[in-house]
Amino acid sequence: MKKIKIILALLITGMMSYYFNYYMINYSNVQGYSNKKIDTKTCDLVIKYARILDGTGEKDFFRGDIAIKDGIIVDVGNINNEDVLVFDAGGLTVIPVPVEIENTNVVMEHLLKNSYPRYPAHYIYFQNEPYKGLTLAQIAKKRGEKPERAFAYLKRKLPSTEKVYLFTQDVDEKKLQNGDHSLKELLAFLTGNLAQAQGLDDKGMIKEGCKADLCFFRSEEYDEESLKSLFLKGEIPPSITICEGGKIVNQ
User: Rounded to whole angstroms, how far apart are CA atoms 162 and 239?
Assistant: First the structure.
């Protein structure tokens, strides 16, 4: 009888330790959870049970809820959903919508034909379709080539008057080419970093005060390596649902 009690005590202790650690990893402020209490009755929408990659470049995946009011994120945390519209994002990953170059006051135009290698491949953003919004580095990844070969191809294909944007980001190009950046950093290059570099502090991140423009995809369909491969090409997984201006829109 004494042995059974000891075994039961050990099992209970183990379970308590497991759930405590689970809570600290998934629901504590360390992983991006807010301890602030908000009145969800004033919110328009709460997104529950999502796996979040927030676009700041600072946090890995974490589980969380997102409260939205008037198209703006008002809290990210373990949020009470009493008397509010709820979107169940269980099994889904949510990321910010990728950011485009909007503030042309912070970029410089340059002729494509003599832009590289004078400037790093990740500084060179294309203005026109079919490459609009992509960098030379991303196009090279799409083509499975070094930037030098991709640049030579584009110079032959596009008009000699083709112009690109030169836009500086604090990126180690060699690490970028080798795929050595972390997943959170690669997403931030497409979202939060790109927004902040343009002075668009309310875009590209899942945090309080940012616009609730979000993409959702099925978590089980993409592991870390497949996401890295997409982000390096300037792509994201196809969305099954989006949140646009704080409203859920089914694709």
Answer: 32
